[in-house]
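Hi Y.,

Following your request, here is the sequence exactly as I used it, all 378 residues.
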Amino acid sequence: MYDIAIIGAGVIGCNIARELSKYDLNICVIEKNSDIAEGTTKANSAIIHGGFDAKEGTLKAKLNVIGNKMFDELSLKLDFPFIRNGSLVLCFDEKDIKGLFELKKRGENNGVQGLEILDRDKILEMEPNVSSKVVAALYVKNSGIVCPYEMTIALAENAYENGAEFIFNWDVVDIIKNEDGFIIKSEDASIKSKIVINAAGVNGDFINNLVSENKLNIIPRKGEYCLFDKYAGKMFSKTIFQLPTKMGKGVLVTPTVDGNLIIGPNALDVESKEDIKTTVEGLNEVLDKARISIDKVPMRQVITSFAGLRAHSLKDDFIIGESKDVKNLINVAAIESPGLSSSPAIAKMVEEIIVKKLSIKKKKILIPLEKEYLNLEI
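Below is the corresponding structure, written out as tokens. Let me know if you'd prefer a different format.
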């Protein structure tokens, strides 16, 4: 029997596995796919949010700010690419500038430091390729970009080196709660564990609802992206947002840690939790919205498109904690944006929950992840 079974080997599950592998615990990570980072983790904007956007008092706001501060040390320890490139939230109408000040105030109330309102001249000096219609922007110095799947690989490697076991191609079909803990079933096998941590992404409601009467409803929200080559990546150094309006949040334009450029995403609630197909309509929407931020979209440099799903909840906040009616079921659900940015802090929060529940000690010897970064670029 395992002490802890973590369901889901995305950036959340692997962050949690790494933190808990520091303790004398028998841990397994169960993943339905053939490798880690096969879900939302590999198909997102790859940005580390500054923390100005989330509503005050929410877990999103609290954990975004804490998690953001953890990336410098974490990337150095685990040797994954991370750059604090900063971001700009653009405004295109004088009457909307008050919205920038509202975002600035919200960010400051959330604990974000160094926020600054810039005028048109300063913006164009920083980023000459943004739209000539820009009138002002919120400058967020602490924003960053990262490679989510390389980060997750590093987290998983470190967790594995410290004793966590990874079980792939293992699709959970049922969970039975008994006096000893849980029996987690696939089609042809079962695993026993004292504690279950539900980090199953868009399938987090399915896992919870197998054993809990307090039902969750996770809505798969699809976002489509266009990826451009490295020539286009030179156009911008910062992540470019649009000031949210009644028409929505718009799309972002951002360089990647590999030197490419990403534009996206749109937001479409879909029925299937396997629907990651791009559509002509969706990609046209993304490109049309991008033209608000930049005068010229470098269409000849598009090299591919992709889509990912976010685990959206109508509660509009992360759901983290022990189930009210199922002891030792720890839900880490509805982790949508800024989930990647918050992921190290989410893992620390789960660690605190587990430490309070169990009488455990940290291992005397921990194996750090010391490796030379392998550049696979050809």
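The chain has a mean pLDDT of 95.

Thanks again,
Q.
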